[in-house]
Amino acid sequence: MTHQENRRTFYLFGLLVVLALVFTACAAPAAGPSTGAADAPAVAAPSSDLPAEPGRGTDGTLTLLYWQAVSIINPYQSTGTKDYHAGSLVLESLLEYDPAGNLIPTLAQEVPTVENGGVSEDLTTITYKLVPGVLWSDGTPLTADDFVFTWQYCVTPETGCTSGNFSAVASVEAVDAGTVKITFTTPQPYPYYAFIGYLSPVLQKAQFENCVGAAAATCADANSFPIGTGPYKVKDFRANDVVVYEVNPTYRFENQPHFAEVVMKGGGDAESAARAVLETGEADYAWNLQVPPDILNEMAAKGMGTVVAAFGGNVERILINFTNPDPTLGDARSEWSEADPNPHPFLTDPAVRQALSMAIDRTIIAEQLYGAGGKPTCNIVSGPELYVTTTNDGCLTQDIAGAQALLEGAGWVDSNGDNVREKDGVELRVLYQTSTNAVRQKTQALIQQWWGEIGVATELKNIDAGVFFGPTDNADSLAKFYSDVQMFTNGNDSPNPQAYLGGWRCLTENGVNIANSSNAWGGENIERWCNTDFDALWGELAATADQDARIDLVHQLNDMIVQDYVNLPLVFRASVSAHANTLQGVELGGFETEEWNIENWSRAR
User: Fold this and answer.
1) I need a surface site. Which of 35, 83, 228, 256 has the fewest CB within 10 A?
2) How far is 262 from 535, CA to CA, in rounded Å?
3) Right CATH number for 311-493+565-574 from 3.10.105.10, 3.90.79.10, 3.80.10.10, 3.40.190.10?
4) What is the mean pLDDT of residues 272-301?
5) pTM (2 decimals)?
6) What pLDDT shows up at residue 47?
7) Alpha carbon distances (Å) from 377 to 170, 208, 318, 381, 516
């Protein structure tokens, strides 16, 4: 199959849905929390101070509300989507995805293919020609050596790199200053992973060359103020609070970006962020609006802004910890190694994991808490559509009685009448953690009730998002996984889920893929699940070119994860955000950050 045929197939999934119409009513906003903007008209008039056409830095300050505050701006040192977004204003990759899922050049001159000679006939190499004359924000030239360095930085285990996009890369070579050649360990029918999209940008060698290995976590200045080639540079950063950006003076497009300053403000919650855009006009953009649909629709009716959404591959899921998180273990808590997998005292029993899944009513969660922004799902790969299997749809029907019978049959009984099942002196008591958010806490409460009905006692814990999704060395980070189960959203960041599914491998070409102390908790496999059959099947996917065969392999890999209850998929989530009606140029897609084209954003005239 040719590259063009692959692309046509992948682009069928592209879906951009708008959840609310643009209203033009001029009624004043409802009373509520405000910082003085409550008396503003419902639809702000274009500023008379703006020039007729937007130019570089002509449109003042752009305010983005990220209620999950940014912790770090180097995406290779975080597991948090909000940190990836923060980095995307500064750091760039070779290619990125447009809203339809098309690969488009960024720092590369074109998308390499077999037909144009950029991909070798045997699919083992891909070569990129860099856009000439690109400068870092400090005025020095971007060269192929920066890409070679970034690869070396990320594949050094002690660096704690959280990206798996280099797992199939054997080498990155600077053919000359403007040419990057990537050689793969095996033929790659879909070679677009390394240096593609917001999760795999290039770092400046001169800034990060002393930050490789164990030194990576100590490079606070570089991780907070990375030098980039993107439209903005970091002017001020206060971790878990605010990032202030200014225009990159060396940005290669003369009249972009249009906003002189971008303020990415963290803190608060999703509902207050939505209110600031949709009701009070205090902000221009609010991200990740995990807000009950009735409340969001009521806000949108005020006419100040527009709610937008896009489905990509994101799934809200509950992860199962296959290791023992008992705090009495000290440094061995949730620690995995080949020599000592440190098994969980009861979650390694498949009957327990299955029962936890059977007890959940995914339809109630999706309909009541997500509305049009979510669909109940039983699959880890829930998009694009061509990769979605219906094999596991039985999980959409809650079965409390079946879960009770399953546990009973596996020997888990309530022998003392305290409503908690036990076996061999081990009780089914679960610590269930997630980030602080109203929708997630409501989800926790529902699941706590359902699990209680099958004899599983559940303690709930919520953690500030800036910490939970922050640097991996924090005890409350999701990578450390110091609980029995945890919940968050993740998904394939490209239309092809190969790299995403590779995150569940136990061992890779670069070593252990399970998050543990040996890789500074940078391994992608958070659940600590090790299945050599899965690893072998993923290797088959990576070597398969035929599209129908690839779809079948993706289905099989998805089913291995789901049917072994490695995690419990709940809701196929859209990326739901809102922007002021005075903001132009926003184009959401499912496989890039929402700010992927921020250089084009401008104020309405």
Assistant:
1) 35
2) 43
3) 3.10.105.10
4) 94
5) 0.74
6) 55
7) 36, 41, 12, 9, 29
